[in-house]
Amino acid sequence: MSILEPLQLVLDEACALLLFDLIAKDLYQHGYSVQTNALPAELAALLAAEVRLLPADHFKKAGIGRDQQHILKPLLRGDHISWITGNTQVNQAWLEWAGSLQQALNQRLLLGLFSFESHFAHYAIGDVYTKHQDAFKGETNRVLSLVTYLNPNWNDADGSQLVLYPQDMNKDGLQVSPCLATLVVFLSEDVPHEVLAALGDRFSIAGWFSVNSTPVI
Ligand code: OGA
Ligand code: MN
Fold first, then answer.
1. Which of 48, 84, 101, 200 could form a disulfide with 150 if both were Cys (CB 3.0 to 4.6 A apart)?
2. Model-level pTM?
3. Domain ranges across the chain
């Protein structure tokens, strides 16, 4: 594998720490956090450009469930995904930023987040992801879900809002517009959520922080 020169992005550390404080406080109090303009602007723009340049055959139809139980159900989930492996500078800058969030949340909330996996997602017109949870107690080591959006000119007519159904909210839930650089973080087992039908192309990154499930001997 080639060694990639790290991207020199202008990252404002003081801003990042303030943001991570806000996210930690929200997670502690409510189990979720929604932050607009959370991703550094330059990183968001690079990711938005990169996902649009990925060749179509890099995207696979997304399924439901993991490993052997992985099944395709396009009516329940219509998006196509491409895993982020760190094979480009922009990929790496993203993984680094997610790593700094992981470290900050571990320091503030002692979550013991150990690993991170993420993919780009593309919802085309008509695609939905019906109400679901990202993890179920005892079945997975995913503890914290993250979504960030890569749509520079999103407006209400494009649909495809994320709706969160946290425990302390009425049954209508909380709608989030998938605007560039908005970040949503929530406890994977505690917050059911869905993606409403897309009326235009919608690009995002979904990711999960997991705890280490390897038994200590
Ligand atoms: C997911 C998911 C939400 C979104 O990929 O599991 O719930 O807004 N995504 O893209
Ligand atoms: Mn989900």
1. 48
2. 0.92
3. 4-210
